[in-house]
């Protein structure tokens, strides 16, 4: 095989690789199919609720939220329909009973009461669908389902700030950062456990090099030896001084007369 033939074969493999990867795309799981249906049902509920909010809502923030939610619901429903057609998933079926009841309640109110109920309705739909979309996006092996999950995740993430700006949501959209549980030393100095571990086991900028460690060890041994020698030599000197003091009075006495 000459060089030209080899390059041609390599280019064919490079061009054909995306096709091969698409051909090996895994079939949709039961969870994937259920997710496609859930996206469709969520859009079926949000679309009429958003239409009601544009006409019966009182605040500008709710009307803005309704306009965006309605457009995004139509987009998701279209994508869910395309995905379902490729997977041969039937999307027929009525809305869940709780969504039907919520829509019926919305139709009975207007003004500020409607605004609060619409925000609560949309928050319920988003908070139910978001964890499912995130899980499916991370676990599915089907490209079409992953695309739908990624888009649903992005749509809900874009709606959350508007829900919070409405001022009608009685819970934080984004969880606050947990309180720091970092232990502290006396005086309030943070205790860095990782830094202490690095120093203990020979890492980190606080750990001494090997020559420094050896020097400290030799110095410590020398000091310990000198202290031991001095402690041992002190009793000997004391005994010598005592014996000299006992001899001195005896030598000072005059010799006894016979």
Q: Could you describe the 3D structure shown?
A:
It is a single chain. The chain is an all-alpha fold. The chain has two domains: 27-165, Up-down Bundle (Ferritin); 199-242. It has helices at residues 3-23, 30-56, 60-87, 97-107, 111-139, 143-165, 193-200, 210-252. α2 packs antiparallel against α3 (60-87), α2 packs antiparallel against α5 (111-139) and α3 (60-87) runs antiparallel to α6 (143-165). The longest helix has 43 residues, at 210-252. Residues 1-24, 174-180, 185-189 and 204-208 have low confidence and may be disordered. Residues 1-23 form the signal peptide. It comes from Paractinoplanes globisporus. Residues 235-258 are annotated as: Disordered. The chain crosses the membrane at residues 210-231.
TL;DR?
With 258 residues, the protein is mainly alpha-helical. The chain is built from eight helices and no strands.
């Amino acid at each position: 095989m000459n060089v030209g033939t080899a390059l041609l074969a390599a280019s064919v493999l490079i061009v054909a690789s995306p096709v091969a990867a698409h051909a090996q795309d895994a079939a949709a799981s039961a969870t994937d199919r259920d997710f496609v249906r859930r996206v469709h049902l969520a859009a079926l509920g949000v679309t009429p609720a958003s239409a009601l909010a544009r006409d019966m809502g009182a605040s500008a923030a709710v009307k803005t939220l309704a306009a965006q939610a309605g457009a995004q619901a139509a987009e998701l429903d279209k994508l869910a329909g395309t995905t379902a057609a490729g997977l041969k998933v039937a999307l027929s079926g009525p809305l869940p009973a709780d969504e039907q009841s919520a829509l019926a309640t919305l139709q009975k109110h207007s003004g500020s009461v409607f605004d609060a109920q619409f925000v609560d309705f949309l928050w319920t739909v988003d908070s139910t669908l978001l964890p499912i979309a995130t899980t499916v996006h991370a676990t599915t092996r089907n490209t079409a389902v992953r695309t739908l999950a990624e888009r649903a995740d992005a749509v809900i993430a874009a709606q959350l700030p508007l829900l919070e700006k409405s001022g009608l949501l009685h819970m934080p959209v984004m969880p606050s950062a947990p309180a720091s549980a970092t232990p502290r030393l006396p005086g309030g100095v943070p205790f860095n456990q990782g830094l202490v571990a690095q120093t203990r086991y020979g890492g980190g900028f606080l750990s001494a090099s090997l020559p420094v460690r050896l020097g400290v060890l030799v110095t410590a041994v020398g000091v310990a030896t000198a202290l031991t020698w001095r402690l041992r030599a002190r009793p000997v000197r004391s005994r010598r001084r005592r014996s000299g003091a006992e001899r001195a009075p005896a030598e000072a006495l005059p010799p006894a007369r016979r």
